Give the backbone structure.
Amino acid sequence: MQRAFGRLLSSRSDFRVRRTSWRFLSQVAEHADENALPFPKMPHFDYVPPPYTGPPAAEIIRKRKEFLSPSMFHFYEKPLNVVEGKKQYLFDENGRRYLDAFGGIATVCCGHCHPEVVEAIMTQTKRLQHSTVVYLNQAIADFAEALASKLPGDLKVVFFTNSGTEANELAMMIARLYTGCNDIISLRNAYHGNAAATMGATAQSIWKFNVIQSGVHHALNPDQYRGVFGSDGEKYAKDLQDLIDYGTSGRVAAFISEAIQGVGGILELAPGYLPAAYKSIKNAGGLCIADEVQAGFARTGSHFWGFEGHGVVPDIVTMAKGIGNGLPIGAVVTTPEIAQVLTQRSYFNTFGGNPVCTAGGLAVLRVIEKEKLQENAFLVGSHLKERLQSLMEKHEIIGDVRGRGLMLGVELVTDRELKTPAKAETLQVMEQMKEMGVLIGKGGFYGNVFRITPPLCFTKADADFFVDVMDYTISKM
């Protein structure tokens, strides 16, 4: 055991670990036995960050409590002060390295601080930081053209925004203007943003304030794990048709959905649902909006966009997060005919299409193609999912493993038959995985689903380390 712990110490030689982390590792070694799992070793990474000279975590927490909104929350009992990122890794104030399996909430697709993206941002910033769209600029036009080339059919008119919430707000307004109807159908358990209209489309009580939210109906969620119809997508779609027949005038503005619900717990819609749902919406004169804020930009691996995995073509596509690898940018893409409705009045966005953000976004697209990150998401994601499914066979607490590519979910339950959410255990595993060098997200209505959405440069070695850490942590519970 002493030799094993010595190897552990040497494997951590590339950072200065906080005392709390060493205390945890010491306790692991002290209580280990000869039959215990070997302690997972993080893959080698040839980079050591320079010493951090900024304020410590305690000082940042003090300022945050005094000067920032009390609604802001953080993961972990002892919040992590992240000071640097490189590819799929993050570093804290002590220089300790962490495997980032959350990707800034499915946002970092190319990897942290990708040199080509950084170079594009810096070059544009030195030339022109801001101009607004009332003047011509090459960056916004080039990026719009590149985005349009990645979308099917006549989806080629781009409106740039600053976030996913803003993109969904605009998409819903466009649909209402184009159809002349107000009713929009969303899915239960959905998350589309937290502004005025999008909060109505969002369907989880934790994200909804007690303010007026009108004109949105929530259909049964085609949840293959907890849903009443299992994986029968067409039965769920019948509920959507019933909503149209009994809850509206028979005409609707739009249907909005993610292909894989991110905040909702990495729930992939039941097969056959979207084609049937889209057909009902079209028959009711409505438009179909695909929310690709989390599933887009090659994350699912098998396709560039999540909706492509369901064999449908939407009328409007919204996107953000991966579009800029962390830059504050989003977009709405639709057809020339639908786009015309915004000419009825003046529509303007001061920062939408900012030259720095669009130059960075174009670099992101080029890196995804150049480095074959979609292919990597498919290969590494498939490997990771297979390993997680094997882990499910070993640990009863794992109730479900789901998702595609590098957008995966692991749901923890205390009873597989009853599917009782293991909320406390989820937090416990998160804390211990962090101490072992792995950062992960959580979500789902009950907060018991691990959200695995790392940068798309994640490797098989990273995937193996991730699974080994989860296995080790659950085994010690």
Notes: Confidence is low (pLDDT under 50) at residues 1-24, 26-32. The CA atoms of residues 143 and 360 lie 9 Å apart. The chain has 15 helices and 18 strands. The radius of gyration is 23 Å.
